[in-house]
Design a protein that fits this description.
Strand content: over 45%
Number of helices: 3
Largest sheet: 7 strands, antiparallel
Strand order of the largest sheet: 3-2-6-9-10-5-4
Radius of gyration: 16 Å
Shape: globular
Structural class: mainly beta
């Protein structure tokens, strides 16, 4: 029997898969919860479904599980600092979006980042165990898009870049 691959080798291999960068948000008890996510994808057109993978030990996990409604902001190329900030472990929960221009979705009340190429408001329809993460499947109930000269923010091999 062969040994399973080393987790660091897995991380290096997955780092070679370029991804877009999103911020996923939820609002619980008047407090904004947010996390940077690149484990986000489209699932279905009929019905409109997306999924995001949320680490079970992250504060955001409890918030998204409790509220069942959440927002997704697809970051434009100017948002590297925002992405880094919202992926920083141990950052303060209260006021974490104070330095990030945002508005609240009409359907979910979740924060949506102003400098986004697209925003979506979602309602959880199912969750699935996924190792140390929970796979959250959401129905898209609201969408907005905008064009940006900054292009899209991408993540590849541990680094950020812009794609136009």
């Amino acid at each position: 029997m062969t040994e399973p691959p080393d987790p660091s080798a897995y991380r290096r291999a997955m780092g070679r898969f370029a991804t877009g960068v999103t911020v996923v948000t939820a609002r619980v008890g008047g407090i904004d919860h947010a996390m940077t996510a690149n484990a986000f994808t489209s699932v279905s057109i009929d019905p409109l479904l997306v999924l995001v993978c949320v680490e079970r030990e992250a504060r955001f996990h409890d918030a998204v599980m409790e509220t069942g409604e959440w927002g997704v902001s697809v970051l434009d190329g100017s948002n590297r600092a925002t992405s880094e900030w919202l992926s920083t472990r141990g950052r303060p929960l209260h006021g974490q979006l104070d330095r990030v221009p945002h508005h609240y979705g009409e359907l979910t009340g979740a924060a949506l980042l102003d400098a986004s190429l697209a925003t979506m408001e979602c309602r959880t329809v199912a969750t699935y165990p996924g190792g140390d993460h929970t796979i959250v499947l959401g129905e898209v109930i609201g969408i907005a898009t905008r064009d940006s000269d900054d292009g899209g923010l991408v993540h590849y091999r541990g680094r950020y870049d812009r794609i136009r």
